[in-house]
């Protein structure tokens, strides 16, 4: 048998960053932004200083609340009214932006400096076509008048790799995928060829292949145009992929900065070491004891089809979201389901919870096929299969206390109020939240703490199976590490079967005993993490693994001094 060819996508060599003695395009000097009185800390950012040079990519990393996005908004003059720079300078080509009136800043936005936002669907106007929105940038600055404007829009759509620009010009944002919408945002930002591009978490919500395409696109544009790029992220894989230099922020302070190679491989500050120690990586050994446990959930030949139409006279389109999928989950085992957006992985989760009907197949829970059960017949079993949702803030009732959120399920299942409240307090302790959380509301907690509340709610009914749908994708790397460790600990102690749906292959490699790879509704590969990640057989799996950002950088080889996340 001939040796398997290495199909891993090799990153393009990075251009050399500009010399350190080159004049900075942007210089932030001792910038402090005060927060309203009464908060946990007086400053959003305090006495921060760093430079961005033309022709370099500077990555700003840190957890939520570190001040990285705040400094980006300050550069663009987009701070909310209740925040104000108290002191310091933001020098763009030697000109202090903090001293400029709003009219001057408005003239610079889009033309001299531009920003790509994290969520393009929120940033794009749903009532305007893609072409109209890109053209508006040019109209505001009176650039490319007449027919040249539409031609420039078509050029930009093609430049960012979007298909059929002429058709896309007249398309509304909601008809595009997440990756396509992000490309439209990039086209808008680059329409007038600004000298400075600020990208604020532009790939966080994207699957791994789309993320790789956007990172490659930004790196190519930066190289071709010679721009300075400020890339805000919490993903160290992204940093390893594209950064020339890195600035690390913690609680509004710059705690470390330097060349990317130095910060990634020889971090000095304890906070940087903790962040790198929290990067998901393969466990040293896979659990073997789960193989001896009984099967709690078995799916056989599951099928789910959606039929969509395109207008009154349009042909109906049949989408096989889940096409003949089979797998098993044992007690104490974690099955990872990975794939791109649209692969069918979240639809499987909805089917398991019977949130959508299925078109064929079996779902055997403790040997009983729950697929044909009516809602009333399934209701007694619903407590045994619980879900942890992707967005804990959207899934928690903001008008209810945490204690009530956790207690309502057990009370509805027959427990007394006293029993349910006692169980809720036990679960809060189990997920490592303070007892005072019982009487507080969801908006009083961080994202990671809210996810812990979601886990406690899911555990309140003592389920045998947990379905976690992208439950850590929006969390900072250190918070993500804590939640993953918590899930693994609870799952092993309580012997719960866990179905872990994710687009993050690093996370899947860390937490799963078995991995199911989905593509266009079908299972293309199914095996242990070592088999899937070290010796992938299917071309699609190979492409997924090849697209993981920073795959040439191994965080486990970095000396973090025993730092804990």
Description:
The structure is a single chain. The chain has 565 residues and is α/β, with parallel strands linked by helices. It has three domains: 14-112 and 194-277, Rossmann fold (3-Layer(aba) Sandwich); 121-192, no CATH class; 330-355 and 375-549, Rossmann fold. It is 35% helix and 23% strand. The chain is globular and about 70 Å long. One of its GO terms (molecular function) is ATP binding.
Whole-Å distance between the termini?
44 Å
Can you give the mean pLDDT?
Answer: 86
Briefly, what CATH class of the largest domain? Alpha Beta
Task: Note the total helix count.
Answer: 21
Helical content class: 25-40%
Largest sheet: 6 strands, mixed
Major beta sheet, strand line-up: 6-7-8-3-9-10
What's the total count of β strands? 20
Low-confidence stretches: 1-15, 284-289
| Quaternary structure annotation | single chain
The outline comes out as globular
Key traits:
565 residues; alpha/beta; disordered N terminus; Rossmann fold; 23% strand; 3 domains
What's the helix and strand layout?
Blueprint: E1 26-34, E2 43-52, E3 57-61, H1 68-76, E4 84-92, E5 95-96, H2 102-108, E6 113-116, H3 120-123, H4 130-140, H5 147-159, H6 165-168, H7 178-190, E7 196-200, H8 208-225, E8 228-233, H9 236-242, E9 245-250, E10 253-259, H10 260-265, H11 270-277, E11 295-308, E12 317-330, E13 334-338, H12 345-352, E14 360-365, E15 368-369, H13 375-382, E16 385-388, H14 392-395, H15 402-412, H16 417-430, H17 447-459, E17 465-469, H18 477-494, E18 497-502, H19 505-511, E19 514-519, E20 522-527, H20 529-534, H21 539-546
Parallel strand pairs: 3-8, 3-9, 6-7, 7-8, 13-18, 13-19, 16-17, 17-18
Antiparallel strand pairs: 1-2, 1-4, 4-5, 9-10, 11-12, 11-14, 14-15, 19-20
Helix pairs in contact: 4-5, 4-7, 5-7, 7-8, 15-16, 15-17, 16-17, 17-18
